[in-house]
Structures are given as C-alpha cells and as structure tokens.
C-alpha cells in the first residue's frame, strides 16, 4: 500500500520548523519520514534545517528533475526532493513543510495528501515575527493580514484540514499532531 503525503502549512513564524524538529523522533518511531527542503537561503541563515543552495544550484537541480515539488515564495526557491516519491511508493507516510500558495499543485500531484494547518494567535504571531527581525513592522502587519485571509479561504475551500494551534507550548502541539495523525491512520 502506498504511503500518504502529510503537507504541513502555516504562516511564517507559526513554528513549522520547530514542530518538525520536535516531532522528528516520534514520527520516525511510527515509520513516518520528515523531509528536509532545499532552499535558496544562506546556510548561515536562521530557520529550518534545510539544504541551502544557490539559485544556480537550485535551477540545475530543477532542470535535472530532482524535485517532486518546487515553488518560489518570499524571494526564495523551495524544493522537495524527488526521493519522497520512492518513500511513498514503498508505503512510508511522508511529512513535508509545504507552501500554502502551492497547495493546489501539491493536491493535483498527491490527491490523497493530508493537510495540516499550523495556526497561531495573531498577537503571538506578531510578537514572533517582530522578534525574528526579518521584516519591518509594516511588513509584519501586511503579512498578518494576508495570513488571516489565507486561513479563511483555505478552510472554506479544502476539505478535511487538520488545524493545530501552536500559540502555546510546543510539546502540546506535538502531542496534538501525533493524536490527529493517529486518527487519520497515517504513520502507522
């Protein structure tokens, strides 16, 4: 039986990378793979434990067909290594840090994918984004407005989205993620 793609999305600052890091071991114990993305971000940049490449390297990998999924967002190129297709074919469920804007393309390629939306209280998200220091206060407010609209649209358009609130302690979010994945009979 083929595995299922678990597509984690959420606004920047919602804690997706922290959740993936914290869930890596318990997910692996369930036979679920968590994938490292390829990103055109400096290896020294703060953020997820991704494979950092130059734009030229990314374009070369893309031309070679190295990605199962790829997209451009926030000035960066993102790629999900093609090896996930083999893992899925081998019956492993695979959790990836996806893109909200690329969800429809991902659903076309993986119709059975399970969408997990990581949400955060707006005040908590504002605080996280400002503390991160990558954007001005005005840019943070614009991002918060877009995030709220996207979440409303997503919940109206996509059936069976698992929504996890990550406004509090990360360990609680990990527990809720594992419980919800169990209910979906994924990673078993």
Automatic annotation (TrEMBL):
Catalytic activity: alpha-D-ribose 1,5-bisphosphate + ATP = 5-phospho-alpha-D-ribose 1-diphosphate + ADP
Keyword Cell inner membrane recorded: no
Gene3D superfamilies xrefs: P-loop containing nucleotide triphosphate hydrolases
GO molecular function, one term: ribose 1,5-bisphosphate phosphokinase activity
Keyword tags: ATP-binding, Kinase, Nucleotide-binding, Transferase
Listed pathway(s): Metabolic intermediate biosynthesis; 5-phospho-alpha-D-ribose 1-diphosphate biosynthesis; 5-phospho-alpha-D-ribose 1-diphosphate from D-ribose 5-phosphate (route II): step 3/3
GO biological process: 5-phosphoribose 1-diphosphate biosynthetic process; organic phosphonate metabolic process
InterPro entries linked: GK/Ca_channel_bsu, Guanylate_kin-like_dom, P-loop_NTPase, PhnN
Documented EC number(s): 2.7.4.23
Residues at which ATP binds: 10-17
Keyword presence, Acetylation: no
Domain Guanylate kinase-like: 3-182
NCBIfam families: phosphon_PhnN (TIGR02322), PRK10078.1 (NF007485)
Family as reported in the entry's similarity comment: Belongs to the ribose 1,5-bisphosphokinase family.
Function: Catalyzes the phosphorylation of ribose 1,5-bisphosphate to 5-phospho-D-ribosyl alpha-1-diphosphate (PRPP).
Record's protein name: Ribose 1,5-bisphosphate phosphokinase PhnN
Protein's organism: Pseudomonas abietaniphila
Source lineage: Bacteria, Pseudomonadati, Pseudomonadota, Gammaproteobacteria, Pseudomonadales
